Amino acid sequence: VYARGATDNKGQTFSHILGTQAWLKDHRDLPVNLIYLMEGEEEIGSPHLGEFLRVHAPELACDAILVSDTSMIAPGHPAIACGLRGIACVNLRVKGPSADLHSGVFGGAVPNPATELARLLAQMHNGTGRIMIPGFYDDVAAVDAVETGAWKHLPYTDDDVLKAAGSTALGGEQGFTTLERTWIRPTAEVNGITAGYQGPGSKTIIPSEASAKLSFRLVPNQNPVDIACKVAAFFASKAVPGVEVEATYDHGGNPYFASPDTPLGLAVRTAVRNVFGREAALVRGGLSIPVVSLFKEVLGRDTLLLGLGLPDCAAHSPNETFPLENLDKGIALHLSILEQFAT
Amino acid sequence: VYARGATDNKGQTFSHILGTQAWLKDHRDLPVNLIYLMEGEEEIGSPHLGEFLRVHAPELACDAILVSDTSMIAPGHPAIACGLRGIACVNLRVKGPSADLHSGVFGGAVPNPATELARLLAQMHNGTGRIMIPGFYDDVAAVDAVETGAWKHLPYTDDDVLKAAGSTALGGEQGFTTLERTWIRPTAEVNGITAGYQGPGSKTIIPSEASAKLSFRLVPNQNPVDIACKVAAFFASKAVPGVEVEATYDHGGNPYFASPDTPLGLAVRTAVRNVFGREAALVRGGLSIPVVSLFKEVLGRDTLLLGLGLPDCAAHSPNETFPLENLDKGIALHLSILEQFAT
């Protein structure tokens, strides 16, 4: 069981910890050995976890890995995420004049880094939402139509997405459903932009530089370093004279796919039937949990991603939540999973 | 004589004040009445100066107005700016989801306000640097070829502009010289952009909103409010579903043109010949000094713009400067102007 920093994830993980405690109140011992692994660097790409896993591999040897950091498909309907998107984080910097310039004296004479940054970002997608970085889609694996077909029966509508997002319209790549766009299609998102004057009123300058934080969600079999190189080459090719364009790779994680038909997967699916009275939904996740690739690489084990949070938990946003009801159900589910292993 | 807040401008203005003091050391009285008007709100559009001028119009009644807030054409070569560009400052805001969203969970599903802002800004110009806002150039007055032709003989090269700007290449609207682009062509500049996460490392969000500070330098006979309306209509027409686009007028000032052949202009030009041994260059200024339109409107007098600063004074930038040598020469010039009026 692996816990990281977010509120929603902490709630999910605590339900497993409390489930273990609850089991030990009624039993002398656990039916299986459990190792709890806690780490606080997941949001910056887990730079030290790989070394930790390698050093402690003998103590961490295990048959299966469980991570609860994903979502139910709807309240009361847990889901197993068979896949996750990977991520490549890239910082883009456009450098122009050696200092901020008076936009009256120099406006019209020299390129404006803020304008050039906007032009670069605007060229990332075409009018249909397709990403225009050469080679970006080269390694995207085809997805079985049986898997995507089953998603049509999930209790999940575009209206739910709009409501959870607080948005008035959907967007993104044309030709794919909303679930496909978030689960099996890669993205290019602008996470932040910084340029020139940002205080109250106005300051009439041509900023010396402008920068953007970008993240690319990746799907099997895209590679974050490869994508970061393609991104950097794309922006370099679009730079106009008078500005210097630099795209640097910040961190990344591989996309992931694992079967839900392992012994742990089958135990969890039975437990979901027992506690929730329904089948666990077999889904994918749009987010990235780079550590699951590390677990696979160092410990040689796939990770079962059991989602106990709610789709509207406001992850990475103000007022992130995990309902107490989900905590209670999570404890019961954990007890039922241990029960499966005991029998 | 009118003084405002910038270092360069203060230096220029002090040379007039010290010139007046120097005259009074050697003479009983001034040959003409002088009124010094000081104001500290020019950079925010002088919101209170109009009322002040109206209330005090009788005390401020004058034959001519002198402002030194522009540049020499080169060290030791003062210039009279016969025209100035106006300005329209506009704040652009793109509002999307009700809060920042997790870019893994929602990336690909909803429009990203930072990306949409970049697309809006990228559409302001076409590939030749022409501004694509409908009607933007409608009121641009033709400029006499005699005036622009004389600029070819100014001691001023593109290399000087590159050096003063600290830029490696020039940019802007094709088909015009650098002086024309900064003196008699309007511009659309991005002064600042704010969106999403701007701290160290990365934060994988779809920002709830993104905004930009824009300023448009205007030439005769463009009107700042008219331009702001055209800008707002342009951006509104480009908004995609799921984002709300709002462009608000912050402040502005009219473009300006005045003849250098007034009594004050002729006195100044004689004084320049006496002190600097050369003709004052007759130029325009790319910057905006909105108060000159106010002076004209309320006091009914044109303003002579006598430039005593240097082109590389770093106006609106760190380490803005005014050389002491220019202060000394400015004092001598002011004495010579008073001499003209005395005789």
Q: On the 0-100 scale, what is the average pLDDT of chain A?
A: 93
Evaluate the radius of gyration of chain A: 23 Å
Identify the biggest protein-protein contact and residues per side: A-B, 90 and 91 residues
Characterize the main sheet of chain A. Answer: 5 strands, mixed
Strand content of chain A: 15-25%
Low-confidence parts of chain A lasting 5 or more residues at pLDDT below 50?
none
What is the number of strand segments of chain A? 13
Distance between the termini of chain A: 21 Å
Shape of chain A from CA axes?
A: elongated
Describe the oligomeric state of these chains in a short phrase.
homodimer
Q: Helix tally of chain A?
A: 11
Helix content of chain A: 25-40%
Please provide a brief summary of the model.
Chain A contains 11 helices and 13 strands.
